[in-house]
UniProtKB/TrEMBL annotation:
Protein name per Swiss-Prot or TrEMBL: ElaB/YqjD/DUF883 family membrane-anchored ribosome-binding protein
Pfam families, per the entry: DUF883_C (PF19029)
Source species of the chain: Samsonia erythrinae
Signal peptide: none
Occurrences of domain DUF883 (ranges): 55-82
Highest taxon, organism lineage: Bacteria
Length: 82
């Protein structure tokens, strides 16, 4: 929960830094602000995706274990090939 709030604060800080760079014609501040903003947005998207996966695993644990076993088997077969 605090992670989402922290991401939002970082996004707003990035927007502010980007706007400051625009007002002062400082491309370095613009780039840093945009990078901070987009990194925070990406972090939010990853957190939301992880929450969805967690819910699906909690709702269908047998299905989740079966999928994990299948992926592990596939990776093992690919690595074991010579």
């Amino acid at each position: 929960m605090f992670g989402k709030a922290e991401d939002k604060v970082k996004e707003i800080a990035g927007e502010a830094q980007e706007k400051y760079g625009e007002l002062t014609d400082d491309s370095c501040h613009q780039a840093k602000g945009a990078a901070r903003k987009y990194a925070a947005q990406g972090n939010q998207a990853v957190r939301e995706a992880a929450d969805v996966v967690k819910e699906h695993v909690e709702d269908n644990p047998l299905k989740a274990v079966s999928i994990a076993a299948g992926v592990g088997l596939l990776i093992g077969l690919l690595i074991g090939r010579k």
